[in-house]
Amino acid sequence: MILVSRHLEPPNPSPQPSRHQPVLLEETVRLLAPERGGFFVDATVGGGGHAEALLAASPEVRLLALDRDATALERARMRLERFGDRVEFVHAPFSALASLLGPERVGAVDGLLADVGVSSDQLDERQRGFSFQQDGPLDMRMDRTTQKTSAAVLLANAGEDELETWLREYGEERWSRRIAHAIVKQRRFGPLLRTSQLADLVARTVPGGRGGIHPATRTFQALRIVVNRELDELDALLEQAPELLARDGRFAVISFHSLEDRRVKEAFRAEVRGGRAEDLAPRGVVPSAAEKRANPRSRSARLRALRRL
Prior knowledge:
By secondary structure, this protein is of the alpha/beta class.
């Protein structure tokens, strides 16, 4: 077993203003209908773009802003400062939402939003290790204040079969076995500690990506999902959300790959079949050609929304 540091890092004490562009902003606001006023939750507030639009839509909107990334929460606090006490900020994962709301707010949420993608702020900060576009430590933790296990730790200690399963199931990587074998073989010479090391290893191991997509894209996605238990988090939110909504309450989810979207679609379909909700976007809403040109990172996004009956 190769030991890799599991130290926790404090969030940046002075985060810069967010550079993240909120995806499907107009469509999300339209489906959540904040002009009704009421109590809203942005379960992944990030840079605060969606939250800002919801609060600006009506002075009667009150918002709970949630994020597991402490630095993102501080960026949102800066952006939403002008709304004063209409906003409450909480550092927590969205799986904890029901317990955070308490009994008095269960069944009283008029609008709930979860944008479950990685933000541009996280991708562009090389020290976070989410992207292979620039060299940085293999970290990938959404919450560096409490999460102990980074991507480097996982790669140093997981067996080949376990690595192959992650790459196949969470990255939908066709070359999962070959990449897993290469990672284990590389450990004989030293641990993988940098994003550039892993990206180069994958690029040397498998054929080049199609359509200009880097061959390490799916590997990085799979590791990020495992490090942050992202699908478990999403499943927990999808299970809690229907009971949290008020009558006519809206629930919107923006996902960025098929693993997430499939879960959202199936959960929404169950609510509709049970006669408890109306699907406001049965086929999902995708970015326009103009938005994709302006923000290429939006290209894989899909928005789904539900209204409680």
